Every structure is written in structure tokens, then in C-alpha cells.
Design the sequence.
């Protein structure tokens, strides 16, 4: 058979005998027919062969030797591979990445309206929960404990936070796992979100009645922690279930913005309520009760309705299968770097913010008349500053990281920025130092909150166990409270003992700042150890 040259024609030209061979002589010139965009798409589908260093004998390579040994031992592999270089798949090639980034883990492709509803639900819930939680835990509860016994207020606060955090820790893992196993016509997350909110609301409301008894407050605060984490574990797992990869950073950013805004507004609201004395404190508990009782219901109404999963397959429930569902992930170092990194970062955060009222009153305004009123006013101003910078950071950081495709480095840098913020009141122990803390640490915390949840989802080893694994990651929120409370209260107790005083010496808080900076920087280092995520 003659070739093209013999018949007198190249591709796209008639041969000398006038016969056009279909698919051969009528082929278009691809260099001219394809647009630059189409050529770029074709190049992405290419799987390049690895370059072999000059002078290297392929038969001597480790991979070829292993293949040859397998072939000689009778393993059913192609013996030809022992002497021929094989192409290696390029993980960056579009040909090899068959995932659709706009399809969520549950297999659904949400519409733009559904994505907006998910974003609004996450953001609203973050704001609504953070405001009363911070107002109560950082301002109202410390004031109540100061009214009970000023000499032991720090240790009582540390005890409540530590015991409550242990309850929250167990609830997070248990109910995150139970939500994975739940089958109902309302889905697996919705029932727990609603129930948890109602339990938290009832518990907080009862504290308004029993706020003069430390044992009663301890028990009811633990019940509130239980309800809050029954709601929180499946709530966070919903981001893994229903938010597509392509927009997860953006929605995580809005969620982080909601947390940052809610926490700073919580300080403002708590300070203003505290200005009104006993009536303001009682009103704070009642507002918290109403918000927690309603927010779970409101959130699931805003979100697109979770589909029934009654027919979803599930392993037979036995004692062994239940225990196996609580087993932490194995062979997942990135998961544990993220867990410990977040625990330490948030530990540093709570070392300062759980005691913000006491720091302002006993460190910044120590020995001054009307120190309590000055502390409330300072916290309110700090809240406004932190609100502005954290909102800017949170709303911009999420979309930017989606665009550049990086999570790890921004989270680590945000942790370092937060450490710089803590340094401000240590170097400048005045109102100015605290305002600089609000601005610098608020910026770092805003960026951190915007990206950290997306980073956590990215290191999950098994999407089918997202509720359980995110519940374990959310242990960072509870363990960090324990770290913050135990470290700060222990430092203060030791300082009081050394100085033989009942009032907190200002020097104790200098040590608190130094320890907080150290553990936040360790957190940044651990985040950079993650390898799976850029």
C-alpha cells in the first residue's frame, strides 16, 4: 500500500489519483483548526512521561527491580514491565481528576440558590450562637462568680470551663457519630441540630433562676455544653456533606466571619448588659435561652431541606459496630496535626478571652476606682475594633484561598499574627495595648476562622465518617477551653500563693500572655507539618 507521499498528498490535500481517503486525507490541520483555549485543554489531558536522568539504567531502578521480582515469583503482572519504562500518572492532569468540584459529598449538585441558602444558614447560625455564648461565658458568668466569692472567682471559672469542656468533648464525638448512623425522613443531621438547640436553651434559661449557687451553675452549664455540642457536631458535618469543594472556602469564610462577628458582638453585648447590674445579668441568661432554643429550628428552615435517608445503607448495629464508629482515624497524620494545631491555637485564644473581663479590671485598671465600669467600657470599644477587622479578614480570606488553592499557609500565618496581637498588652500594659490587641489579634483570628474549617474538611480521611471525624476535630474547641481555663487559672493561683494575697497581682497576667504566645506559635508550626493540603 502506498503512503501519503506516494499518492502525492499531505493531510488535508487530495492525493494524486483524486481519491480522498476518509479520516486520512480530509483531516483538518489541528494547529489551525483549534483555538488557543482548546489547545490548552488538550495539553491538560496529556500524561507526560517521566524524564529519565541521563546515564541512568532503567533496569537498575528500584521500581523496575520490584516489578521484575514480582514477575519472576509468579505474580500475575506483565513481565514486559521489568524492562520497559512505564508512564507515571500526573495527578495534576484533568484526565486523572474525575471529581466534579460542584457536586457535594452526598452526590447532589446544589443550585446557586441552594448554595446561597447554605451560606446564609451557616453565617446566621454562627453569629446567633456566638453572641450569647461569648457574652455569657466571657462577661456575665465571670461577673456572677465574682458576686458569689471575689477571692475564688478565677478558680471557679476555671472549674466550670474545664468540667463543661469535658462534657462538650464527649458530646461532640458521641453525637457526631450518632448523626452519621441516624436514618430518618428528616435526614441524619437535622434532628440532632434541633434537639441540641432546645437542650442548650432550656439549660441556659434555668441558670437565670439558680445564678447564686455555684454547684447549680456548674451542673446547668454542663447541660448547656451538652446541648450546644449535640447541635454543633452535626451542624459542622453538614459542611462536609452538602457544600461542594468549589465553594467550600467561600462558605467557610462567611461562617468564620459569622463566628468572628458574633464573638466580638458578644463582648459588646455582655459589657452593656453588665453595666445594668443584676437585672442586666438576668436578662443576658434569658436572651441566651431564647436564642439557643430557636437557632437550630431557624437554621434548618433556611437551609435546603435535608432529604430523607431512611433507605441509606447502614451496617447492622451491634455493640462492636458502635464502638468501631467511635474509633479515631488511623494512619492519618495530617488529621492529627490539624487537631492538635487547632487545639493549641484556640487554647491561646481562650487563655485571653475567657478572662478578658478580669484582665481589663485587674491588669489594665488595677487599683483604679470604678475599675469594673472602665473594664466594661474598654471591652465594648475592643469589640467594635475586633468586629471591623475580623469581618474584613474573614470575608476576604475565604474567597482568596479558593482562588489560590491554599489553606495551610494562611492558617499558620494567621496564628502568628494572633500571637503578635497578644504581645501588645504585654509590652504596653495600658488601654492602648488592649486596643492594639483587639486590632492585630482580631485580624489574625478573622483570617484563621475563615479558612480553618475548610482546612479541617480537607484533611478528613473518610468522607463517609465526616460526622465522627469532624466531631473529633471539634474536640479542639472544647479541649482548648480546658487548656485556656486550666493554664490561666493555675498561673493566677500560683501567683497569688507566691505573693500571699487574695487579689490577683497584675504580674500574673504577664505570665499568661507569654504562655499564650508560646502555644499559639507551636500551633502554627504544627499546621505547617500538614502535607496533604497546600
Sequence:
Amino acid at each position: 500500500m502506498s503512503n501519503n507521499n506516494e499518492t502525492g498528498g499531505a493531510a488535508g490535500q487530495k492525493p494524486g489519483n483524486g481519491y480522498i481517503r476518509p479520516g486520512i486525507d480530509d483531516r483538518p490541520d489541528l494547529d489551525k483548526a483549534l483555538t488557543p483555549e482548546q489547545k490548552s485543554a488538550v495539553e491538560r489531558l496529556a500524561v507526560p512521561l517521566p524524564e529519565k536522568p541521563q546515564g541512568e539504567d532503567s533496569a537498575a531502578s528500584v521500581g523496575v527491580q520490584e516489578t521484575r521480582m514480582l514477575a519472576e515469583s509468579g505474580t500475575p503482572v506483565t513481565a514486559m514491565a521489568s524492562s520497559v519504562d512505564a508512564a507515571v500518572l500526573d495527578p495534576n492532569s484533568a484526565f486523572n481528576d474525575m471529581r466534579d468540584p460542584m457536586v457535594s459529598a452526598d452526590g447532589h449538585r446544589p443550585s446557586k440558590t441552594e448554595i446561597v441558602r447554605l451560606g446564609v444558614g451557616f453565617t446566621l447560625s454562627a453569629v446567633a450562637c456566638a453572641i450569647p455564648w461569648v457574652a455569657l461565658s466571657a462577661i456575665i458568668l465571670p461577673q456572677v462568680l465574682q458576686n458569689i466569692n471575689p477571692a475564688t472567682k478565677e478558680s471557679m471559672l476555671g472549674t466550670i470551663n474545664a468540667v463543661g469542656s469535658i462534657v462538650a468533648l464527649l458530646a461532640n464525638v458521641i453525637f457526631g457519630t450518632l448523626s452519621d448512623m441516624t436514618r430518618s425522613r428528616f435526614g441524619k443531621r437535622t434532628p440532632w441540630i434541633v434537639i441540641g438547640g432546645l437542650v442548650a436553651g432550656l439549660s441556659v434559661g434555668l441558670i437565670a433562676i439558680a445564678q447564686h449557687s455555684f454547684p447549680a451553675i456548674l451542673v446547668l452549664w454542663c447541660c448547656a455544653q451538652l446541648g450546644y455540642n449535640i447541635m454543633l457536631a452535626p451542624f459542622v458535618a453538614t459542611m462536609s456533606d452538602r457544600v461542594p469543594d468549589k465553594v467550600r472556602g467561600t462558605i467557610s469564610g462567611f461562617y468564620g466571619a459569622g463566628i468572628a462577628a458574633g464573638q466580638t458582638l458578644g463582648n459588646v453585648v455582655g459589657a452593656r448588659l453588665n453595666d445594668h447590674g443584676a437585672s442586666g445579668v438576668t436578662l443576658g441568661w434569658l436572651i441566651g435561652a431564647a436564642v439557643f432554643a430557636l437557632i437550630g429550628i431557624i437554621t434548618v428552615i433556611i437551609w435546603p431541606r435535608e432529604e430523607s435517608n431512611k433507605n441509606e445503607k447502614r451496617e447492622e448495629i451491634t455493640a462492636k459496630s458502635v464502638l468501631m464508629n467511635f474509633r479515631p482515624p488511623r494512619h492519618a497524620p495530617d488529621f492529627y496535626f490539624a487537631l492538635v494545631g487547632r487545639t493549641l491555637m484556640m487554647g491561646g485564644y481562650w487563655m485571653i478571652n475567657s478572662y478578658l473581663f478580669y484582665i481589663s479590671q485587674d491588669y489594665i485598671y488595677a487599683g483604679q476606682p470604678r475599675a469594673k465600669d472602665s473594664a466594661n467600657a474598654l471591652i465594648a470599644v475592643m469589640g467594635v475594633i475586633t468586629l471591623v477587622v475580623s469581618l474584613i479578614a474573614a470575608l476576604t480570606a475565604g474567597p482568596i484561598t479558593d482562588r489560590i488553592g491554599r489553606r495551610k499557609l494562611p492558617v499558620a500565618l494567621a496564628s502568628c499574627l494572633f500571637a503578635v496581637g497578644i504581645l501588645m498588652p504585654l509590652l504596653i500594659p495600658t488601654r492602648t495595648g488592649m486596643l492594639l490587641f483587639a486590632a492585630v489579634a482580631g485580624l489574625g483570628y478573622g483570617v484563621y476562622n475563615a479558612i480553618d474549617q475548610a482546612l479541617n474538611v480537607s484533611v478528613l480521611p473518610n468522607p463517609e465518617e465526616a460526622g465522627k471525624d469532624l466531631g473529633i476535630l471539634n474536640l479542639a474547641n472544647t479541649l482548648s477551653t480546658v487548656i485556656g481555663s486550666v493554664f490561666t487559672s493555675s498561673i493566677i493561683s500560683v501567683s497569688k500563693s507566691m505573693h500571699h494575697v487574695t487579689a490577683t497581682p497584675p504580674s500574673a497576667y504577664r505570665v499568661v500572655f507569654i504562655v499564650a504566645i508560646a502555644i499559639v506559635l507551636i500551633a502554627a508550626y504544627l499546621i505547617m507539618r500538614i502535607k496533604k493540603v497546600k
About this structure: The chain is about 70% helix and 0% strand. The longest helix spans residues 112-148.
